[in-house]
Amino acid sequence: MSVTSIKIKELVDKREQARLGGGQKRIDAQHNKGKLTARERIEYLLDDDSFEEYDMFVTHRSHSFGLEKQKYYSDGVVTGRGTIDGRVVFVFSQDFTVFGGSLSETFANKVCKILDQAMKVGAPVIGLNDSGGARIQEGVRSLAGYAEIFQRNIMASGVIPQISAIFGPCAGGAVYSPALTDFIAMTENTSYMFVTGPKVVQTVTGEVISTENLGGANIHASKSGVSHFLSSTEEEGLLLIRKLMSYLPQNNLEDPPVIECSDAIDRLENSLNEIIPENPNKPYDIIDVISATTDYGEFLEVQRNYAKNIVIGFARYNGRPVGVVANQPKYLAGVLDIDASRKAARFVRFCDAFNIPLVTFVDVPGFLPGSKQEYGGIIIHGAKLLYAYGEATVPKVTITLRKSYGGAHDVMSCKQLRGDLNYAWPTAEIAVMGAKGAIEVLEGKALASIESPQEKAEFIEKKENEYSEKFANPYLAAKYGFIDDIIEPRNSRFRIIRALESLATKKEVNPPKKHSNIPL
Fold first, then answer.
1. What is the predicted pLDDT for the residue at 281?
2. pLDDT in the model for residue 72
3. What processes in GO biological process is this protein linked to (predicted)?
C-alpha cells in the first residue's frame, strides 16, 4: 500500500471509531432505554445524506481524576450542518454514551462554533439534549463553557430560530440553554428538566418527589409551560421539529416560506354560520373555527396542554405561514389569566421577531378574577400580552367571534394596538362588560327597590335586552371605525387571505431605542 492509502485507511478507521461514541456496549444500553444515539437522531432529523460533521476528532484536554486515560472522539457532542426540506440548519446532538453527555470545555467550544457559524450565515440552530450536566472533573471550565453557550443563545435570540429537543436528562445549569431558545420539545418517560433534582429537593426542603413528577415531560407540558411540544417517542419529536421548521424563515431578515396551495381561497365554510351557540354562556371549540379557515384544515398547535384557555400555533392561508392566537371558550370560557397571557405574549413576540403575520380570533369575557390571580401578578402578566401586540409590526388581522369585554378587548389585538384589519362576526359583543354585569351596576338601586322576584326577573330581562341591543353588538364599534367590517362567518377564510395579501408589503418601524422595557 502507498503512504497515501495507509493514511486514508487510518482516516476511515478513526471516523468509524468516532461514530461509535462511547462504544457498542453503551450504544446498546441507550437503545435498551428506548432512546436513539446522538448520530441516529441527527440522521432522522435531517434530509438524507445532508449532514456534514464538524470537529469529529476533538477530544478533551483534562488531566484531572484520571480523565487523560479516557478520551473519545467528538467528546460527547456531535456537531455540524445539514438541511431540512432543502434549507440549511445547524445541529448539535449530545452523546450520552460519552461521559454521560457531560459538558467539558472542548464540548462547549464545539457548540459555540456551531452557534457562531449559524449567526454568520443566518440559519436556524437545533440542539438535541441528552446530558448528565457539567463534567465535574473540569470544574469551573465547564461552568464557563455553559456561560459561553448562554451568551450566544442570547445574541442569537430574535436573529435566527433556535429549537431545543430534550431526549434525556437536562439538569442544573444545563437547563438554561434550552430555556433561552424559542421552542422546546420533550418526550414522555425518557426526558426531564429541573434546576435541582429530587435528592437535593428532599435534603433541602424535606419534600419527597419523583423525577417524573418534578421535571418530567408531562409536567413541563401541562403545569410549568416550559415545554412547547410533547411526543411519545423521539422519532415523533424529530418529525414535529421538521414540521415546525416548515413555517419558519431562516432568519429575521427573511420572510417565512410560502408554498403552493390548491385549497380554494374563496372556499365557503357554512358550518361557521352555525358554530356560535345561541346561549352566550355555552362553549364551543375554537379549534373547529381555526381548522375551518386554514389551508387543508391544518394547524400546528404550540403548548397544547398548557393554559388551555388560549390557543396558539402555526397555520397557512393560501400557502402563507401565520401565527394564530385564539381564545378557547371550551376551557374557562376563554378567559385571560396569568398563564394564558404569558403563553400568548411570548408567541406573539416570536412571530413578530421572525416576520410571521398574526391572525387573532377573539372570544374573551375578560380577565380571570380572584385573589390568586391578583397576588400572582395578573396586572403585570396581562400587560405582557398587551405590550406584545402593541409592539408587533408584522401584519395583524383580528376577527371577533363573540365576546370581547373590558380590558381583555384591548389586549386581544384591538384596532388601537395598531391592528391592521379588525373584523367581527354579526354575533360579536364588543362592550365594557356583558349585559348581566352591566345591569347589576347600572340598575342596582332600581333592582333593590323591587320586592317581587317575578317583577325583578322581568325587569332584568328587559334591561339586559336593551343593553344588548345598544351595546353588546359589533355595530357600535363599527360606527366608530374600531371594526373595519362585519363579515359573514362562512367567508372568514377568504377575508383573512385577502387581508394578508394586502398587508404583504407592510412596513412599520418602532421608535429607535436601545431595547424596550417589557413588564417582565
1. 87
2. 84
3. carbon fixation
Determine the Cα–Cα distance for residues 293 and 315; give it in Å rounded to an integer: 10
Asked if 125 contacts 162 with a C-beta cutoff of 8 angstroms, the reply is yes
Please report the pLDDT score of residue 175 as a whole number: 94
Q: Quote the CA–CA distance of 37 and 476 in Å, as a whole number.
A: 61
Residues belonging to the active site: 172-173, 407-408
3-class SS of residue 389: helix
Dihedral (CA of 66, 70, 71, 74) sign: negative
Q: Is 318 left (phi over 0), alpha (psi -120 to 50) or beta?
A: left
Secondary structure of residue 204 in the 3-state scheme: helix
CB atoms within 10 A of CB 256: 21
Helix (H, G, I), strand (E, B) or coil at 10: helix
List Cβ neighbours of 201 (8 Å cut-off, separation of 6 or more).
207, 209, 214
Cell reading at 96: 450520552
Pairing of strands 169-171, 320-327: unpaired
Give the three cell numbers for residue 164.
Answer: 431545543
pLDDT tens-place string over residues 428-470 = 999 888 777 777 787 777 777 787 888 777 787 787 777 877 7
Contacts of residue 103, defined as CB under 8 A and 6 or more positions apart, other chains included, come to 76, 77, 131, 133, 134, 135, 142, 145, 146, 174
Report the C-alpha gap between 496 and 295 in whole angstroms: 12
8 A C-beta contact, residue 149 and residue 111: yes
Q: Residue 105: which of 55, 59, 56, 38 has the closest Cα?
A: 59
Do residues 198 and 219 touch, judged by C-beta distance below 8 A? no
Q: Which residues of the chain have pLDDT under 70?
A: none
pLDDT at position 455 is: 78
CB 118 within 8 A of CB 154: no
pLDDT of residue 339: 98
Sequence-ordered list of residues with C-beta below 8 angstroms from that of 303, at least 6 positions apart, any chain: 221, 225, 227, 228, 312, 343
315 three-class SS: strand
d(CA 501, CA 352): 17
Return the pLDDT at 365.
Answer: 94
Helix (H) or strand (E) holding 403: strand 396-405
Alpha carbon separation from 184 to 67, 212, 229 (Å, rounded): 33, 17, 7
Looking at residue 449, its pLDDT comes to 79
> Across-strand partners of 78?
93
Instruction: For helices 38-45 and 234-245, give the axis angle rounded to 10 degrees.
Output: 40
Virtual torsion, Cα 154, 397, 503, 125, nearest 10 deg: 20
Is residue 176 within 8 A of residue 146, CB to CB? The reply is yes
DSSP assignment of 222-276 equals III---SEEESSHHHHHHHHHHHHTTS-SSTTSPPPP----S-TT---GGGGG-S
Left if phi > 0, otherwise alpha if psi is -120 to 50, otherwise beta: which for 219? Answer: alpha
* DSSP classification of residue 374: H
- pLDDT at position 189 is 92
Tell me the helix, strand and coil percentages in the chain, rounded to 5: 45, 20, 35
